[in-house]
Amino acid sequence: MVVRRHSDTGGLVAKKMRKVWQTLLALAVFVIIWWLIAASTSSALLPNPQQAVVALFRRLSAPGGLHHVWVTVYRVFLGTLLGALTGTVFGVATRYSKLAEVAVRSVIYPLLQTVPTICWALMFVLWFGLQEATPILSVSVATAPFFIINVWEGMKELDTSLIEMASSYTRRPFKILGKVVMPMLYPYIFAATKSGFMIAWKIIVPAEIFGATAGMGYMLNFAFHNYRIPDVFGWTLAFAGILIFFDYGVFNYIDRKFVRKWKPRELKQS
Asked: What's the 3-state SS for 153-182?
């Protein structure tokens, strides 16, 4: 029994190391191809990887350079949080109110899902100008549909027997919601958080271009208008690096350590 456990652990470590090496190999191939294309074209419009990285570090090390990164991170987190709260409330409300279900299904979700986010960003610029609220609200409007649909679908898949058993101990609906319903929705909320957070980083760029005077998107637009091509590629690499860090680092860790315990046993084994 002990031997099997050690063998399973060794196989898991080997599998993880194999994935790491495959990722590094893919990254190396990408960098080499980029470098070869840049060298063959010799165009000012396509800097090589070294030029892009050097330009990025030059901007980050300049006075106020990191400030733009923290501003964008703050806007993404706060916008995603507002979208999560709004979407979760609407999704949960569909179980307790027929009117809320009709409103979410017929008006709220279609409106948020179908209207392009750039339209919301432009409207927020008209309403709030170049204020902090413009990119934050643009992100929240873009992420809210992910939480609405995931929580909505999660409410349909709830184990009604557990809710009925909890109802026999207490008649307070908010206590049942907090102690029984919400824990069963954790996997759905986590999936919405991961998808919404990834989308938020893509939405923040046009939101900051049109409605901000600071942030990574603003700096990307500033570099573009001043024909600083290496800076454009450098800031693009910064966005990609942040997304990869959160996707493969933070979210995968949270999924392994905390979320999977709320999933059914058959989903864990798969």
From this structure: HHHHCCCHHHHHHHHHHCCCHHHHHHHHHH
